[in-house]
Design brief:
It contains no helices and six strands. With 66 residues, the chain is an all-beta fold. The structure holds zinc ion.
């Protein structure tokens, strides 16, 4: 079955540009990218995890208590 067309009412703010940073002429990726979707898809950062909005891949952040 064909996927239903989603109305483009909500325009999701594109924050992808924030995921890149150029330092000394070198492009750095500030965010993690989805291992499933590839380098073009960034993971959304949450408190204790990062998730992919595309495939819902979730990666938990191991953060040691200080
Ligand atoms: Zn993904």
């Amino acid at each position: 079955m064909a996927a239903p067309q989603k109305p483009a009412k909500k325009s999701r703010s594109n924050k992808v540009y924030k995921a890149y940073k150029v330092e000394g002429g070198v492009l750095k990726r500030l965010r993690k990218t989805c291992p499933k979707c590839g380098a073009g898809v960034f993971l959304a950062e949450h408190k204790n995890r990062t998730t992919c909005g595309n495939c819902h891949y979730t990666e938990f952040i191991k953060r040691e208590k200080q």
